[in-house]
Amino acid sequence: MRWFRKLIPWIVIAATIAAMIYLPDVDPERYTDFSSLFGTERRRQANAGFSVAVCKNGKIIYQGYFGKDGAGNPIARDSPMYLGPSSEILSGALLYSLSLKGSLSLDDDIRKHLPNLDMSKPRSLRDIVGLKENDTEAEEEPITILQVASHAVDLSERDLVAFRSRISGIEARELDPELFLLSRFSAEGVQRSRIAYRLLGTVMENAEGQSFARLLESRLLIPLGMHGTTAEPDSLQGVAVGSGLFFGLAFPYDSRVPIIAAPADGIVSTAEDVAKFLSYITAPPSKGIASLPPARVAKLYQPLTPGSSSGFGWRVESSGSDRRVYQGGSVEGFSSRVVIWPERNAGIAILSAQGGIIQSNIVLPQLTSAAESLLFTGSSPRLFAINRMLIILGISLLVYLISLLMQTAIARSWARNMLEKRELGRRRIMHFFTLGRTTIGIVLRITLLFAAPYLVGRFLGISRLGYHDLFTMEPGSCAAFIMLTSIGTMRNCSRLVWLYQLNRG
């Protein structure tokens, strides 16, 4: 009977997995239109709501709005959402525009436009470009605007405190664990930093003597008719409320991106507005806007330096004679994915009122890949159902949580059983082993609880990570981790306390 009770949680989990695997999938096996693709997959991918716009040959050929935001309001055509790291594509276009105007040069030493940059640590900027302390010749080499824009330098949050904010952003990428691990642990290359475009935002402000928001508005947004876009969200009405994801369940997650982070994370826009921008840069008209001449726009999504994968805010991915150029990621409560296919004069923007690693690194890349297939081949297969996986994980964690709570409730019986076995002289070695394992379990859980932000930060290459950031990245997993480690610690402590009490008589 005791063994059967131990098997009950595993039986429940196995039954859940079997149900999710064998439950018939009644959704279409292939999609032949965008409305069916995005409408069906929003539910299958456990997304609260998003807006989509697709452009081709200079025209928006599809717009769709699905689901709700964190406050339960339907996503509409005019629902602005935070772009998160996709803000870089507009910041990069503005930077390029100012370089064409001559307000700044990409070869300028960045300190020319940031004279008040904190130099209290004289080695900080030399460390950024990997120079040695006694390398006097290399010490004079400038850190150029081009290097920062192409993420060709390591930017230290420790040394550039003025440009740091709690908004880190999670960069979108194809789900490739091998490349991810190489980028984090290889000694070659540098890591992308959200600080880069925060620095460049201030550079542009100083070069022109205007705020970043005003520059963006006057040089890009108004000329392109992007009236639902701004770097000052408070100036717009009806900005969507973000949401988090807890194993398939959405909950409100209100976001306020600091002004310093706006050029990298904090621009607010609509899918339609982003598609207008994409239409212009992929198929520029013969007569365009003066601040971004049609003949020069292709430079935006070319690699800034040889061997680089970065354009002006874009990530350039070569695929033979064709290219996929993209940007995206998530910020508190929001995620986005913007992709263009320059050689095909096409692009897509998906803005989601839901944040987290699952959305930015799995769901939105899957959706844009499906849209690519539909756009260029006429159909797309249905995608792997993330919602089923989340249901399995959620139920498994719930079963384990209930098991821990029940074990805590019967801690007195556990302790009495341990003492009876010891007094009868049975399994004395096993008694001390169990006692040691219980104590070590407490220590390990408490250590993990305090060390988790540091360990995740080291893995992701983000310094000064806190639990606030972990909840932003993946609310469900973070909450489950805290609950399970805390209750597991409580269970072990309860067992030891009862063991101590009963042993004293």
Task: Note the main attributes of this structure.
single chain; 17 helices; 7-stranded antiparallel sheet; 13% strand; 505 residues; Beta-lactamase; two-stranded antiparallel ribbon; alpha+beta
What would your notes on this structure say?
This protein is α+β, with helices and mostly antiparallel strands and 505 residues long. The protein has 2 domains: 32-384, Beta-lactamase (3-Layer(aba) Sandwich), CATH 3.40.710; 387-504, no CATH class. It is built from 17 helices and 13 strands. The strands form 4 sheets. Strands 2, 3, 5, 9, 10, 11 and 12 form a 7-stranded antiparallel β-sheet that branches. A hairpin with a 2-residue loop joins strand 2 (49-56) and strand 3. Helix 3 crosses helix 9. The longest helix has 33 residues, at 428-460. The relative contact order is 0.15.
Per CATH, the architecture of the largest domain is 3-Layer(aba) Sandwich
| Helix-strand sequence | HEHEEEHHHHEHHHEEHEHEEEEHEHHHHH
Low-confidence parts: 119-138
- Rg over CA atoms: 27 Å
Going by helix content, strand content and strand pairing, the class is alpha+beta
Tertiary shape: globular
| Domain module tally | 2
Helix content: 40-55%
Q: In the CATH hierarchy, what is the superfamily of the largest domain?
A: DD-peptidase/beta-lactamase superfamily
Q: What's the end-to-end separation, in Å?
A: 30 Å
Strand element count: 13
Overall mean pLDDT score?
84
Largest sheet: 7 strands, antiparallel
CATH class of the largest domain: Alpha Beta
β-sheet strand percentage: 5-15%
Question: How many helical elements?
Answer: 17
Question: What is the CATH topology classification name of the largest domain?
Answer: Beta-lactamase
